Predict the structure.
Amino acid sequence: MKVYTKTGDKGTTALFGGTRVPKHHIRIDSYGTVDELNSYIGLIRDQDIDEQYKSILITIQNKLFTVGAILATDPEKMVLKNGKERLNINKISLNDIELLEHEMDSMNEALPPMTHFVLPGGHQTVSFCHVARCVCRRAERLASALNDLEPFLPEALTYLNRLSDYLFVLARKLTFDLQADEVKWIPEKH
């Protein structure tokens, strides 16, 4: 199989189901940003961090491929002529969302309470988490706009929302684990 097909040379691409849309279509931007997020999570996973975090991050990366597949499916072609779903995979479930919540609760137990916003940084691994968190928020914004136009599985949007929270808590926990400085944002007063 060749990597290049030349079918996108005029600025269009195919959704799952065959519908062709412009490469700048919000659906493409949505799942492309999820793909970007997945790459940043791979970067976090490649750091010298606890194996438990790596295991959860692999699970998250798999779920992000599922989110991407949901976003890449033409809603008008979600059901085949025989009545079966085109996307024949496990979808995002409440269990997937609850896993993120459980992991956040577990990490938070070891952390001091937040009293201020914190400046991203302090350690390269922590910074990667903050970049991933911001990309996740962008993916969520795009997916939310897409959902307004063409609704999709609500759990996929919830998953992105919860994932950005998870990445923030992971950044704080890694700051703690790595004994890095957590710099509070203290606004200057007049």
